[in-house]
Amino acid sequence: xxxxxxxxxxxxxxxxxxxxxxxxxxxxxxxxxxxxxxxxxxxxxxxxxxxxxxxxxxxxxxxxxxxxxxxxxxxxxxxxxxxxxxxxxxxxxxxxxxxxxxxxxxxxxxxxxxxxxxxxxxxxxxxxxxxxxxxxxxxxxxxxxxxxxxxxxxxxxxxxxxxxxxxxxxxxxxxxxxxxxxxxxxxxxxxxxxxxxxxxxxxxxxxxxxxxxxxxxxxxxxxxxxxxxxxxxxxxxxxxxxxxxxxxxxxxxxxxxxxxxxxxxxxxxxxxxxxxxxxxxxxxxxxxxxxxxxxxxxxxxxxxxxxxxxxxxxxxxxxxxxxxxxxxxxxxxxxxxxxxxxxxxxxxxxxxxxxxxxxxxxxxxxxxxxxxxxxxxxxxxxxxxxxxxxxxxxxxxxxxxxxxxxxxxxxxxxxxxxxxxxxxxxxxxxxxxxxxxxxxxxxxxxxxxxxxxxxxxxxxxxxxxxxxxxxxxxxxxxxxxxxxxxxxxxxxxxxxxxxxxxxxxxxxxxxxxxxxxxxxxxxxxxxxxxxxxxxx
Length: 536
What we know:
- Among the domains are: 16-193 and 273-300, no CATH class; 200-270, no CATH class; 385-450, no CATH class.
- A hairpin with a 7-residue loop joins strand 5 and strand 6.
- The protein has helices at residues 16-28, 32-48, 55-72, 111-116, 140-152, 195-203, 207-221, 223-239, 244-271, 311-316, 352-363, 385-410, 420-450, 488-493, 514-530; strands at 75-78, 82-87, 93-98, 102-109, 118-125, 133-139, 188-192, 275-279, 282-287, 292-298, 302-309, 319-325, 335-336, 339-340, 345-350, 452-455, 459-465, 469-475, 481-485, 495-502, 505-513.
- The protein is an alpha+beta fold.
- A 7-stranded antiparallel β-sheet has the order 6-5-4-10-9-8-7. It has a 6-stranded antiparallel β-sheet with strand order 15-12-11-18-17-16. A 3-stranded antiparallel β-sheet has the order 1-2-3.
């Protein structure tokens, strides 16, 4: 893996076998819930049929063999202006990636890579929602050489969007630095997380409830574990006569604490040592305890800023900020069905003033009249008719969801119903719809109060949410398509919905006055046509 050996096909380090084994395992188990369910099902099957345990070594050998074969058929070649990657066992793929197309160079170091001094390099482009190419377990020297070559082919004549001076990157800031260098030596440190911040991230994690529920279901499915632990509980009950309620309470508390421990451990594993710093026209994050991940996003590539907080983060007065680059789908990260989704520049926890400071840094001299804070007074509410439409949609959804339960209940009696099953289902769905209207109206009213928009001459911010809140902000010149649509209700009331398609997703502002939506559409399209700056 000599960085200077241009034009020669190379293999990565043999330790990349661990990377391909991990990719195979991730393709089989999409998330932690599925992994726990799989182990639980295996435990039940082994308890009832011990012969099933013989299939475990065979499965492990098959996964290892797949990882070895994927490593053996993986080749890459670095030319002066591009990189070639060939991979695949039965289905061979070839990637020809010019350096001037690369928008981000991300580095990830697993525990094994850190011990051996290796890194995994990911190359993002603006034309794909997935990571275009990955080089697993290569040397830091090769990663450094790639970064130098790619930066040498990036456009230098265009102003970057950092808002400092003319925006051009100074030559001293374009010098490549080794990926293993400490964060303090890589540029200006913008934001860091403390251990207390990581605890807050764990407490605000929505997977806390999911983890507790999974542990509960996992414990209920382990009948054989109950049989083996019953003597322990019986001996404990003899020591605490009449304390059965206390034992149940302790069991519930133990499950909650176990779920909390899982979520907090996950937060520390992912965000330990989180640091955000600026390096020239790019922003870089590094975090991770065992597996250390480094994400680099050029400022000009950022299409949208998304600030959000759930109910817990709202009580803690904290937010999460995501800078979505081109061709990244919001809400995705990591592996999705075997596809490596392009990395998002994410700050998992920060205060409101810090979020506004980052918005100013990323948008530069543009969008000064925008705001990412949901409580900003400048946000305008959409039409109150939004409440009526949303109430109808929510109540109708509740009625449709109740149909299978109504069918099951009405078909249970042996005696036929006077109106038949169909008539009973229709009547029951109507009653459910009528009963759900007050609840749906309350939900719709709260969402209407959260819905709003704010714009200036350069961009627009859209606010939404229910228990939590979210603000999406973008610059008009980044828009790929702007459309105004009307439903029958909106047409009768002179209202419309504004939809802005960006390279990272869509921003929707519902129930605006038709004239306002049309003017915003025309102005956004004008800014796209008149702008001389690149959108990525």
